[in-house]
Amino acid sequence: MAPRDHIATYILAGGKSSRMGRDKAMLAPGGIPLLMRTAALLAPLAGPPTIIGPPTRYSALGYNVIPDDTPGIGPLGGIATALRHSNQPWNLIVGCDLPFLTSEWLDYLTARAVESKADAMIPESDAGPEPLCAMYRKTCVTAILAAITGGTRKVSDAVAALKIDSVPPRDWKPFDESGRLFKNMNTPEDFEEADAILEDELGGEA
User: Fold this and answer.
1) According to the model, what pLDDT value does residue 202 have?
2) What one-character-per-residue DSSP string does the chain give?
3) What is the pLDDT of residue 3?
């Protein structure tokens, strides 16, 4: 995996984890805190990622942490913050609660995006668009900020006006035959499931 020029990477970690009942970013499925696991996957792509979240909570981890410009409106605010902060034309933005991401998939996504003429490259799963593991041009910030100002809070609604290249399941499933690639970790049950799966995978590699 070679680093890519003109890319910045961001992890969204500003949520309240209300369904989990504790900070899900620091839970450790498979024995590794999820935020650190995600950061380690992103680092080879363009250097250490930037975390969007409370600096008081995460600055001790050793990564650049910037607060959400508009806290309380969900991940859309985090995306806008990342794009405002970025000085690169392309930006990989991922949620902190995706335990089944792989380096091979992220390498493919970034390589495919930088060849695209679109505003954003967003995977599609059976559940619909997956905008919290996607590539965005810096120029998307104008449309996203306008959507926020207009009262939009759902990410899929905010990006609807953008020119999007989709990555259909047939293109990403070779990186994850189980179909878990975009399964997030929101509840204690999700954590237990992810922990069991990742422990099993790591045990199989030992």
Assistant:
1) 66
2) ----TTEEEEEE-----TTTSS-GGG--GGGS-HHHHHHHHHHHHHSSPEEES-HHHHGGGSSEEE--SSTTS-HHHHHHHHHHH--SSEEEEEES--TT--HHHHHHHHHHHHT--SSEEEEEETTEE-TTEEEEEGGGHHHHHHHHHTT---HHHHTTTS-EEEE-HHHHGGG-TTS-TT----SHHHHHHHHHHHHHHHHHH-
3) 58
pLDDT at 86: 97
> What b-and-e string marks burial along 41-72, b requiring 16 or more CB atoms within 10 Å of the CB?
bbeebbeebbbbbbeebbeeeebebbebbbbe
pTM for this structure? 0.93
Q: What is the block-wise mean pLDDT of the chain (206 residues), using blocks of 10 residues?
A: 78 79 86 95 95 94 94 93 97 96 96 96 94 97 95 93 95 91 91 91 56
Q: Are 90 and 147 in contact (CB under 8 A)?
A: no
- CATH 3.90.550.10 fits domain 7-205: yes
Task: Report pLDDT for 204.
Answer: 44
In angstroms, the Cα distances linking 96 to 36, 124, 147, 205 are 9, 19, 23, 24
